[in-house]
Amino acid sequence: MTTTTAPARTDAVALATELAGTFAERAAGHDRDGSFPQENIDELVASGYMSMTVPPEHGGGGASLEELCRAQQTLAAACANTAFAVNMHVHGIAMIAGIGGEAATRAYRSIVDDGAVIAGGFSEPGVGGNWWHPTTKAEPVPGGYLLNGRKGFFTGFPAADLLFLSAALTDDRGLPQPVGFLAPKPERGVRVTGEWDAAGMRATGSHSLALEDFFVPADRMVGEPGALPLMFMQGVHWAWCSFASVFLGIARGALDLVVREQRGRTLHVLDRTVAHLPGVQFRVAEMRTRYAAAEAHLYQAVRADHDDAVAADPLGHYIEMSVMKNSVCRLAHEVVTLAMQVQGGSALLSGHPLQRMYRDVVAGLLVPPNSDVTAEWSGKHALGVPVFAEPRWEG
Ligand SMILES: Cc1cc2nc3c(=O)[nH]c(=O)nc-3n(C[C@H](O)[C@H](O)[C@H](O)COP(=O)(O)OP(=O)(O)OC[C@H]3O[C@@H](n4cnc5c(N)ncnc54)[C@H](O)[C@@H]3O)c2cc1C
């Protein structure tokens, strides 16, 4: 935790733009070594970027969703790993702000005063991305809860001071009640069981963890027991738009890079630059088309009236945001794939930034919301088939 925080600034996009150049220079090294970009996180904290979504009355920047997405997109075009490592922090605070309570107030204080960083763990081995069904157990004990279970893919864990995670309490009927907690990273009770070693997003420190009698004080519960699914539905625009902005940023970075390179590149068999080849032109045009579609979808979702949408149909709102995130990430993946083809074989060389972008953008297809579940819910919702009816498919 760093203690050198600047007063809150509201222009997160300007901060991202200022820091992007340095982060881009460091990106290849962290990717090669699989090392966590702690110095980037420290600089983001010191700049005030990390308090962008803390409400102004608590000393933060009170950034809008559009500002968050534009800023994250800018960071991701330079270093996707850094943007992804702080994704849960920047949108998580906004989601928590929508719920309020003592856990939120304490978190704001430590973020603004002490530069605390949040990482989030909802997915679990055996549950995967089905976030609403944690197998981690929360057992009431005097003064709080003991958490026991396992968490996978805990992005940003090396920098985390606060852990935002899910567990299930058992109610009087013996039924699980999913609940969120926002607790200080403890000295004991959380053990890294697997250091992050992956093909993409290598520098995100997305470790696997075991929670072993992890004591969480009672006032660190976020919302009510059982309210976790509703909490996601009400604040989902913050989450899925933030996720989408990271992967859109990678696509933007790839598009800009490939266009820049082809303008100055010649091959011996050509008497002019590669930019004059029809195949290159058509692919660049296709990249621009898909990028524009992704960008339009994201910012249409960003600018929607979220309060109205939640009030009218919380599940419909969740599904709409989920469809958007999956569509943006799929298009972003296609843009980067086309960029590889435009660049040619040199794109695959380990020294070339495109192969890193290619490995990183795949993660957009894998992170929540699960694309199959989204498609099922979206289709059922549109067709008037009850979304949660069991069995899921008859016949
Ligand atoms: C780089 C990276 C960073 C991540 N960081 C975090 C993080 O910080 N915090 C966090 O909580 N999680 C994080 N995740 C994990 C993520 O949230 C998902 O849990 C995880 O990617 C899901 O993958 P899985 O392999 O567990 O797939 P599963 O969810 O187990 O799915 C396996 C297969 O089954 C299908 N499937 C699964 N459930 C259903 C269903 N109900 N209906 C139909 N089909 C289904 C899927 O489509 C898939 O084909 C991260 C993931 C990645 C890739």
Q: What is the tally of beta strands?
A: 8
Separate helix tally: 12
What number of structural domains do the residues give? Answer: 3
At the third CATH level, what is the topology name of the largest domain?
Answer: Butyryl-CoA Dehydrogenase, subunit A, domain 3
CATH superfamily of the largest domain: Butyryl-CoA Dehydrogenase, subunit A, domain 3
Mean pLDDT: 95
Give the terminus-to-terminus CA distance.
56 Å
Q: Give the oligomeric state.
A: single chain
Architecture of the largest domain, CATH level 2? Up-down Bundle
Would you kindly provide a written description of the structure presented here, covering whatever features stand out?
With 395 residues, the chain is an alpha+beta fold. The protein has three domains: 12-116, Butyryl-Coa Dehydrogenase, subunit A, domain 1 (Orthogonal Bundle); 137-222, Butyryl-CoA Dehydrogenase, subunit A, domain 2; 228-383, Butyryl-CoA Dehydrogenase, subunit A, domain 3 (Up-down Bundle), CATH 1.20.140. Helix content is 52%, strand content 14%. It has helices at residues 12-33, 38-47, 65-78, 80-99, 102-114, 228-264, 278-303, 306-312, 314-343, 353-361, 363-366, 371-383; strands spanning 118-121, 137-141, 144-154, 162-170, 176-184, 190-194, 207-217, 221-222. A four-stranded mixed sheet has the order 1-4-5-8. Strands 2-3-7-6 form a four-stranded antiparallel sheet, with no helix packed on it. Strand 4 and strand 5 form a beta hairpin. It is globular, with a radius of gyration of 21 Å. The termini are far apart. The model has no long low-confidence stretch (mean pLDDT 95). Flavin-adenine dinucleotide binds next to strand 1, strand 3, helix 11 and helix 12. Flavin-adenine dinucleotide (FAD) is lined by residues 88, 120-123, 128-130, 153-155, 201, 204, 206, 363, 366-368, 370, 372-373.
